[in-house]
């Protein structure tokens, strides 16, 4: 048994509490890691607000982490003690139909993301006293140590800084892939990114790297609009309404080849304005997480069909983590992809509530816990 400190969420609307938990030693197909850095992603806030209902509390949040392998269980072959790894909230078993067809981001083990038990054998392996503890997306990266399935870690080169490895495991991969893979941005395109947080800012730089001619960033927070320009946005607006008017004039009424929705929370009323920004024959990508109870949206079906517009969902940038993480780190190492610049401020584990307060107030682009 391993004792370690972790930030636990005991219920909706509560602050995180630092507690000592007990973790099993790794069994077959499992890996024990010592966390070195974890990104403060907005997606974890959905567990705290109730937009994403957790089947069990307490839960260790955090799903954007990197660390060093401490021990492995029987049968683990892709990593060994001493290896550096990035966590992946999308497991990749390598055996299911999706993995075998190159779509590891749709791995069947994703059905177990919010199970209380381990992906490997279903047992409860995390406790506080005698009480079971869940982990957000089977990761629980707000902890000093964590027990994971081998399918949830990706080996990385040891020269990669810990914060870069952590951020590339979710926000960078999701945003970049939303532009490059799902929106299929091409050289010369006009692209709009709606919401410039930790995911949206990477959609901006993904569009830039893909060769977009005009990149429109929309966010009500002035600081984030300024950051968007640093990462490649050519035009910024404070609201969708301003963007619709501005882009109409900018493109002679053609609008955007691709619109990427990376709002903090996706609501039904946001889709139609996003489609208004989308050109005839264009693509609207919905990457944002919506409340689980959000079952309706406003949509002009006639206009969507007659203007041949495409609406696409996007999970993990629509790319396998085992392919995407090394690729993005190569772009980072080459100086093409900015990752260090994403981190506005770092925090200790016991400052996690302070970090999320800064995120909510729009004071940071991305925060990171550094262990």
Automatic annotation (TrEMBL):
Residues 13-371 form the Enoyl reductase (ER) domain. Belongs to the zinc-containing alcohol dehydrogenase family. GO terms for biological process: formaldehyde catabolic process. Its cofactor is Zn(2+). This is Alcohol dehydrogenase GroES domain protein. PROSITE patterns: ADH_ZINC. One of its GO terms (cellular component) is cytosol. PANTHER family: ALCOHOL DEHYDROGENASE, ALCOHOL DEHYDROGENASE CLASS-3. Pfam families: ADH_N (PF08240), ADH_zinc_N (PF00107). InterPro entries: ADH-like_C (IPR013149), ADH-like_N (IPR013154), ADH_Zn_actinomycetes (IPR023921), ADH_Zn_CS (IPR002328), ER (IPR020843), GroES-like_sf (IPR011032), NAD(P)-bd_dom_sf (IPR036291). GO terms for molecular function: S-(hydroxymethyl)glutathione dehydrogenase [NAD(P)+] activity; zinc ion binding. Keywords: Metal-binding, NAD, Oxidoreductase, Zinc. NCBIfam families: Rxyl_3153.
């Amino acid at each position: 048994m391993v004792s370690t400190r972790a930030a636990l969420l005991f219920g909706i609307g509560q602050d995180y509490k630092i507690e000592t938990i007990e973790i099993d030693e790794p069994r077959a197909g499992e890996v024990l890691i010592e966390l070195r850095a974890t990104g403060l992603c907005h997606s974890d806030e959905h567990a705290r607000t109730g937009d994403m209902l957790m089947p069990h509390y307490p839960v260790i949040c955090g799903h954007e982490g990197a660390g060093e392998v401490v021990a492995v269980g029987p049968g683990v072959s892709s990593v060994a003690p001493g290896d550096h790894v990035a966590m992946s909230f999308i497991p990749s078993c390598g055996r299911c139909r999706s993995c075998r067809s190159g779509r590891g981001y749709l791995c069947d083990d994703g059905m177990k993301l919010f199970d209380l038990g381990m992906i490997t054998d279903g047992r409860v392996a995390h406790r506080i006293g005698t009480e079971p503890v869940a982990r957000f997306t089977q990761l629980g990266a707000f902890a000093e140590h964590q027990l994971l399935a081998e399918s949830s870690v990706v080996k990385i080169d040891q020269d990669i800084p810990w914060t870069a490895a952590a951020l590339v495991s979710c926000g960078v991969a999701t945003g970049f892939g939303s532009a490059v893979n799902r929106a299929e941005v091409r050289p010369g395109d006009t692209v709009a990114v709606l919401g410039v947080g930790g995911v949206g800012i990477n959609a901006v730089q993904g569009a830039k790297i893909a060769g977009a001619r005009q990149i429109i960033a929309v966010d009500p927070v002035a600081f984030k609009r300024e950051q968007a320009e640093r990462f490649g946005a050519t035009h910024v607006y404070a609201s969708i309404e301003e963007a619709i008017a501005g882009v109409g004039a900018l493109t002679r009424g053609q609008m955007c080849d691709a619109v990427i929705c990376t709002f903090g929370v996706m609501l039904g009323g946001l889709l139609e304005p996003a489609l208004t920004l989308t050109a005839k024959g264009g693509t609207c990508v919905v990457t944002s997480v919506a409340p689980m109870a959000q079952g309706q949206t406003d949509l002009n079906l006639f206009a969507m069909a007659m203007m041949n517009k495409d609406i696409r969902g996007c999970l993990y940038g629509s790319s396998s983590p085992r392919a995407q993480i090394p690729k993005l780190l190569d772009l980072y190492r080459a100086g093409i992809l900015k990752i260090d610049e994403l981190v506005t401020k770092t925090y200790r584990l016991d400052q996690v509530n302070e970090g999320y307060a800064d995120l909510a107030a729009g004071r940071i682009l991305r925060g990171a816990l550094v262990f």
